[in-house]
Known about the structure:
By secondary structure, this protein is of the alpha+beta class. The chain is 41% helix and 23% strand.
Amino acid sequence: LRGYLETLQMKDDSLDEAERRQYLGLALQHAERLSRLIGELFELARLENRDAALDFEPFSLGELVQDVSQKYVLAARERGLRLETELPERAPFVAGDIGLIERVLENLIENAIKYTDDGGRICLTLIPGPDRIQARVSDTGRGIRAADLEHVFERTYRGGGARSDAPESAGLGLAIVARILELHGGTIAVESAEHQGTAFTFELPAIAATG
């Protein structure tokens, strides 16, 4: 960011309008990434605070998945992707901070859209069990190298390979997801192969529906 701005400052008189717009665009791109990174650092620090206050309440994970997926239908369509849901008629309720679980879903869907090429498919699936409910966000995208899979939830980790070329990726989103689920007594796992897609699966304790 600083380099592009210094170039603009030093060479302003010699740059034509197209070059000036290019440098400004690159500087803005890096500024936006820095802003996201700072926001994620604060979010992760708050979640790692042992005194972090969570607002637990019972809610239907199926309804939340449906609502969140609808927010991304247009973005997926603009990328030439199909965004689909596979939900049971009556999914068990979970107890948790609905805003944070929404953040988990948003992060996983955004990642899937970012790393899936035109013509691909993203699917959100719920699989209810007797004590836990499983949510799965899968895509047909670029995939992750086998050597990187065990590191994807680490803070600031960015592996090489198919998914490393996204300049907007700060490497904190999945660490935030993992911490949110840990605070809810849940777990998350990833399955992937390069150029064959990726699936993130998380589980939350199920409770009896209210009302």
